[in-house]
Amino acid sequence: MSEKGITDKSELIKLRSAGDLRITMDGYFARLKEAAETGSRKIAWCTSVGPAELLYSMGFEVYFPENHGAMLGAGKNADKYIPTAVAHGYSPDICSYLTSDIGAFLQNETPLQKSGFSSVPKPDILVYNTNQCREVEDWFSFYARHFNVPIVGIHTPLSISDLGSEIVRSVSDQYHRIIPEIEKVAGRKFDIDKFRETVGLSHEGCVLWKQVLQKARHIPSPVNFFDSAIHMGPIVVMRGTQHAVNYYRILLAELDERIENGVSAVPVERFRIYWEGMPLWYRLSNLARLFARLDTCIVASTYCNSWVFDDLDPADPFESSALAYSKLFIVRSDAVKESILEQLMQEFTVHGIIYHESKTCARNSNNRFGLQTRLFKTTGIPYLEINGDLNDPRCYSEEQSIIAIETFIQQLSGKATV
Amino acid sequence: MYRLGIDLGSSYTKGVLVDEENRMKAFHCLKSGYNFNNTSEKIIRHFSENFEIGFPVFTCGYGREQIQAEHVPNSELIALSRAVYEMYKRSCSIIDIGGQDTKFIRVNALGQVDKFKMNRKCAAGTGSFLEEIAFRLDVTPAEFTELVKEATREVKINSFCTVFAISEIIGMIKNGATLPNIILGIYNSIILRSVEMSVPEDHLVITGGLPAMHPTIVSLFKKRYADTDSPEHSQFLAAYGCVLLNNDKR
To answer: Which residue of A lies nearest to B60 if distances are taken between CA atoms?
Structure first.
């Protein structure tokens, strides 16, 4: 798209599918609310990269506290709740999803109240996977104690280099081991055919999501990180359902249409950036406008790519689930992470990479052990590090970060343009 | 006709007048206060009394957009790099210590910024750190420069946090540490905070208000890296670079 006729470059170009996204997410929350109010279905709480397929296949409505944490952050309310959790003994240095979520719970407040919920839906069981971090176990344990309900989990090894059969078997065995407890709560027997069907739907949704993200390989990109961070909602909370599949077909069609009509995610795309680390939920739209004003599109991110579980296979649902959820970027060694990043940066033709060092999320801050300097040596792609946090705005210095980002783009302008 | 560069920093606003030959002609520095526009107007008026100034003026720093006079905003890091390159015409590393920020910049042989880093969200190791400690010790920052000459050995300040550093210093005083030795420790603490940002390569240029007002800091850098320099008027270089950048565009 040419600059001609553009009056405000920082104006965000919204995806038309946002309306369908709203309907899809509203449907999800309506089902949860109905289950919470009537008891028609059991409710399981699950970590965002936990065994959602298993739970959906056993008839649960599935609620994701991390999604709730992100809602608190995006609503700019996290800093209102974090001090309450801290006062109850949770350090301000641990996951701010956890502290804002528990703080909000202790204050009996939730953004879901706007959708008619009296509180977050009470769990019948809590299920986690430590593949993303150990803190989820502590987080869920708080609620297990509070509600006096069962908690089961899968413990995935960390920093995986060689993802061999031993690890896959160990994780797969853990899937099998948690089933009896889930059956007790569900009041029904595990059904392998239902599990296969759910894994199949999850695979289909993940492949569609991957295709959505890969549309950003096009120059100019029809979608950016700030869109994807919002439109990833269904793949996070409805993975394994037809709802997610249906939604991503709609989104994919719109992105194809954008490419056909030459519509880009930002009014002018001169620079293409990779985002490494968590979003700053409380500054998402500010950053979207800043990058648009700087003719820059964030075309790819580790965060959004983390929900591409395309190894899921209904023919072998246990082993493929174990493989897919252990192959996740966050659970890999730095050497593997470096090669994944190198490949993605090449695939998306990026000019630079921004590392967001998130104060309360060590596992999603990959610039703490020299990865950024090693990757610069091998790729020559310039990088910028900014300090902030996923949810806690007190850890972010906005003016300083704006200066750094503007300078970084100017730095690139001397070296690369599309 | 002179061109005016203004660096509207968190603590001080620095104005520099540049002549047709791209030479820095006159300097004026004021506390930024809370109203960047008022401060920049004072700077403009100050120069206008004796010189004919061309508009727009060229700005950088936190208040670069908070000015009503016709202006062109710039990145202070790019502007500073441009000014330093103008002076040295070679690749170098820059460490700039200002009121709230410490910056490390690597400039390549073509004068381009290869990489840069700013301090984390913490003002320890910056001008504010030193000013706060001086205030708590009831000594002016200017007195620091004299007192440090009497230092006999460094007292190590370990705390990263300004407030805790003050507690640490009070503890040292109780244990008999002398003020000059403590000041030397404060200076070294500032240096340690800045060198941890990145590894300086070949020529190191020290700039910013803090080293300009505390020359011992530059001497201590020189002890660490022999090939170190700090040009005169180094706190005005970002403002100077703003004007040079505009010349480059013409």
So the answer is: A403
